[in-house]
C-alpha cells in the first residue's frame, strides 16, 4: 500500500467500476469512475466498491 489511504498502483490497475466496468483513478481518499460519475470511498486503506456507498460527483447523461 502506498501512503495514507493510497492504493498500490498494481492493485489500482486491476480495479474497475462495478457499474460500468471501466478503470478507476485515485483522487485523495476516493476512487473515481469518470464514466459513471461516481466516487467510491477508501476506508482504512480498503476500497469500498459498492454503488450504494459511492458519492455522485456529477450527472451522467
Features:
single chain, 61 residues, mainly beta, N-terminal domain of TfIIb, five-stranded antiparallel β-sheet
Description of the structure:
With 61 residues, this protein is mostly beta strands. The chain has one domain (9-56): N-terminal domain of TfIIb. It is 10% helix and 28% strand. The chain contains one helix and five strands, in the order H-E-E-E-E-E. Strands 1, 2, 3, 4 and 5 form a five-stranded antiparallel sheet that branches. A hairpin with a 4-residue loop joins strand 2 and strand 3 (38-43). It is globular, with a radius of gyration of 11 Å. The chain starts with 8 loop residues before the first helix and ends in a 5-residue tail after the last strand. The model has no long low-confidence stretch (mean pLDDT 91).
How would you state the average pLDDT, rounded?
Answer: 91
Distance between the termini: 35 Å
Number of strands: 5
Rg calculated over all Cα atoms:
11 Å
Per CATH, the class reads Mainly Beta
Q: Structural class, from helix and strand content?
A: mainly beta
Portion of residues within helices: under 10%
Within the CATH hierarchy, at the fold level, what is the topology?
N-terminal domain of TfIIb
The number of distinct helices, counting runs of at least 4 residues, comes to: 1
**What's the CATH architecture?**
Single Sheet
Biggest pleated sheet: 5 strands, antiparallel
Count of domains: 1
| Global outline | globular
The topology string of helices and strands comes to HEEEEE
Strand content: 25-35%
Low-pLDDT segments: none
Amino acid at each position: 500500500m502506498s501512503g495514507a489511504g493510497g492504493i498500490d498502483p498494481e492493485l489500482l490497475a486491476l480495479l474497475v467500476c462495478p457499474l460500468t466496468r471501466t478503470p478507476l483513478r485515485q483522487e485523495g481518499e476516493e476512487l473515481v469512475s469518470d464514466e459513471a460519475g461516481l466516487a467510491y470511498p477508501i476506508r482504512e486503506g480498503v476500497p469500498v466498491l459498492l454503488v450504494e456507498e459511492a458519492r455522485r460527483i456529477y450527472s451522467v447523461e
